[in-house]
Amino acid sequence: MEGEMGEEQGMKGSHGGESGMEGVAAMEACYQGFNPAAYLQYNYTAPRADFHRRDSIVPWKLSCLHKAFTEEGLRGEVLVDVGSGPTLYQVMSACEHFDRIILSDFLEVNRNELLKWLQGGEGSLDWTPYLQHVCELEGRSPTAWREKAERLRSVVTDVLPVDVHQPHPLPPGTLPHSGADCLVSSFCLESVSPDLASFTRALGHLSRLLRRGGHLLLIGALGESFYLGAPGLRIPVVSLEESQVCSSLRVCGYNLLRLSVYHLPPDMKLGVDDVTGVFFAEARKP
Ligand SMILES: C[S@@+](CC[C@H](N)C(=O)[O-])C[C@H]1O[C@@H](n2cnc3c(N)ncnc32)[C@H](O)[C@@H]1O
C-alpha cells in the first residue's frame, strides 16, 4: 500500500535484521515481570497526576487529548487504543465521540486490570479524579463523572491482545475492512522496541490498522532510556528526540498535523524512569 512501509523494508543494516528480532524477544522477556499496580502507582498518582497543578504530566496529556477530540472534532465509529497497559485516561475524552472503542495490550495482567474496571470493579487505581477532571475540561460538572464512567464502560467493546512487532498487530477480523477511524497509542512503541528501527517498523504496522484519512494520536516519552515496570525491573526504552518522532511518522507515510511537547519540571523526576519530556503527535494517514 502507498505510504506504508513495505514488508519489513529497510530494517536490515539499521539494527533491525536478525539482531532486531533478538532485541524484540529480549523486550518480550522483560515484560514478563511487569506489575500493573506498581506502574500505576509510579506514573498515575501525584505529583505526576496532580489535578491542582497545571504543570503536572497527566493534566497536560488529558488536555491534549481533550483538544484533539473536542476542539478539533476527531470523531467516527471505531477507535483503537494500542498498548493500553492498565490505564484508561487515554480514552476518557474519546469515549464521547466514537461509537466503539477497542483497548489492547500485549500482557494478560494488563487486560485483566482493564476488564476489572470495565466490569464494574475498582481495579488498582481509582479513576474517579481522572473522570472528574475530563468532565471539567468538557465544561460539565465534575459530578457528571458517573455518567462518563458509564459511557466509557458501554463504548469499550473489546480488550484484545496486541503485538506491535507483528505486521498485523491485532487478531484477524477485529476491525472493519477499511480499518479504524482513529488510533491512540501512549508510551507504547518506544517502551517495547529495542531500537529506533524497530520503533519505526512498529509504527508502520499500526498504519495497517488505520483507514485512509484516519487519525493517529501518538503520545510518548522523549529522552528516556528506561522505566520501572515493577520494583527493580528496569525496562529499556528507545531514547527519542522530537525530530526522530517526526521522521519516523514521515517514513511510515503519515502527515504530521501537530506536535506538542511537555518538558518535565524537576520535581516530576522521581527515579522511576529518566524521561525528560513527553510528545503528543497528531497525524493523518493520507
Ligand atoms: C509504558 S506501558 C504504556 C501503558 C499505557 N498506554 C500508558 O499510557 O501508560 C507499555 C505497554 O506496552 C505493552 N507492550 C509490551 N510489549 C508489547 C508489544 N509487543 N505490543 C504491544 N504492546 C506491548 C506493555 O504490556 C505495556 O502495557
Automatic annotation (TrEMBL):
Origin superkingdom: Eukaryota
**Gene3D superfamilies cross-referenced by the UniProt entry:** Vaccinia Virus protein VP39
Give a yes or no for keyword Transferase in this entry.
yes
BP-aspect Gene Ontology terms:
methylation
Kindly state one GO CC term assigned in the UniProt record.
Answer: cytosol
Under Pfam families, the record lists: NNMT_PNMT_TEMT (PF01234)
Where is the signal peptide, in residue numbers? Answer: none
A GO molecular-function annotation? phenylethanolamine N-methyltransferase activity
**Per its UniProt record, what InterPro entries does this chain match?**
NNMT_TEMT_trans, SAM-dep_methyltransferase, SAM-dependent_MTases_sf
Q: Which UniProt keywords apply?
A: Methyltransferase, S-adenosyl-L-methionine, Transferase
Family assignment from sequence similarity? Belongs to the class I-like SAM-binding methyltransferase superfamily. NNMT/PNMT/TEMT family.
Q: PANTHER family from the xrefs?
A: NNMT/PNMT/TEMT FAMILY MEMBER, PHENYLETHANOLAMINE N-METHYLTRANSFERASE
**NCBIfam families per the record?**
GntF_guanitoxin (NF041360)
Kindly provide the name given to this protein in its UniProt entry: Phenylethanolamine N-methyltransferase
Species per Swiss-Prot/TrEMBL record: Electrophorus voltai
